[in-house]
Specification:
two-stranded antiparallel sheet, alpha/beta, 10 strands, six-stranded parallel sheet, Rossmann fold, 303 residues, binds NADP nicotinamide-adenine-dinucleotide phosphate
Length: 303
């Protein structure tokens, strides 16, 4: 039985021109690295120029009665955190939502979504899944004891991306550590990387039932098969096909600017794109994505 999610809106992205230029550049280069036609038709420009546009939710699947509701804590109540929260509440899950300023500042949004406003510590301890969806640099500001004593089967999902313009230079990542390995080291906890390579507008709007031709696929990287299976189940429920993208050490393949980044590919094309990523080009991928997003982050900082 499908349900319809309410409409919502997020900030607009200025600087579309540069992003568009980058998209053309990538599309032009795509055949050289053997990426699919679908990739060429979904350049990064779309991800970066549309992921901050007003969004409307598409139908998403509600759980059947035999599927247990999950308790999900979300740290970060911005574009991605609020969108995931909204969808998961619609799907029948219990969602706790935290930001940096405290639950009082979240009451209105949480009430509208149907989530519970909490502190980051409470969100981390609220259930079976914890999603960390904050700017990369802010991970270092999270309480050091956030996950201490938490059962090992609690799944921590990292949606984050490293953008030097927004996050400042993080040397360990510049020297080759994947974005999510850095997050995992800071949290003192293994993480599953997911939702980092879909723009918020697509996340809100492109859910389709399982089996729909061209259903958008999302890659999931991480060490624990059980944790990955839970994340993949949530992705399927949200209306996307999950793709196993290997361990966290492989997660650079879905980082900003890679062929698998924010292009709304279906399963075969996403697998092609992940395979087409070239480790030696990570700095180039990162720079291209950072340059494309720079006007947006600069405008955000001026607000
Ligand atoms: N936007 C996209 O399309 C997209 C897509 C995929 C992945 N991502 C990645 O996902 C992450 C979140 O992106 P976003 O666009 O949702 O960000 P956003 O809209 O800027 O929201 C960031 C959220 O993080 C919260 N936050 C910041 N520092 C915190 C802290 N120390 N403790 C608790 N909460 C904190 C903020 O709370 P306050 O408002 O109180 O400061 C805010 O709710 C980023 O790494 C981003 O690169 C984004």
């Amino acid at each position: 039985m499908p349900s319809h999610c309410n409409s919502t809106s997020v900030a607009n992205i200025p600087g579309a021109t540069r992003a568009r230029d980058f998209g053309r550049h990538e599309a032009h280069q795509a055949p050289a690295i053997g990426v699919s036609q679908n990739f060429i038709e979904h350049p990064l420009e779309e991800a970066i120029t549309t992921c901050h546009q007003p969004v409307r939710d598409t139908p998403c699947r509600v759980p059947t009665p035999q599927e247990p509701r999950m308790k999900i804590g979300i740290i970060g109540a911005g574009s991605i955190g609020a969108t995931l929260a909204r969808k998961w509440v619609k799907l029948g899950h219990e969602v706790s939502l935290a930001n940096s300023r405290g639950p009082d500042t979240l009451r209105e949004l949480a009430a509208e979504i149907g989530a519970t406003p909490v502190t980051a510590v409470q969100a981390a301890r609220s259930g079976e899944i914890v999603v960390v969806t904050i700017p990369q640099r802010a991970v270092a500001d999270l309480p050091k004891d956030l996950f201490i004593g938490l059962p090992t089967d609690v799944v921590v999902i990292d949606t984050g991306n490293y953008y030097p313009t927004r996050d400042g230079v993080i040397s360990a990542i510049e020297e080759g550590l994947p974005d999510s390995s850095w997050v995992s080291e800071h949290l003192g906890r293994p993480v599953i990387k997911a939702f980092n390579n879909i723009g918020v507008q697509s996340l809100a709007e492109k859910s389709t039932p399982k089996g729909t031709p061209g259903r958008v696929a999302l890659s999931v990287a991480g060490a624990s098969p059980d944790a990955k299976a839970k994340a993949m189940r949530l992705i399927d429920e949200l209306g996307f096909d999950p793709v196993d993208a290997g361990g966290i050490e492989d997660s650079w393949r879905q980082q900003p600017g890679t062929p698998a980044y924010c292009r709304d590919l279906d399963v075969p094309h996403l697998k092609d794109a992940l395979a087409a990523a070239d480790r030696s080009r990570i700095p180039e991928y990162r720079k291209a994505a950072d340059d494309a997003a720079k006007p947006f982050f600069e405008a955000q900082n001026r607000r």
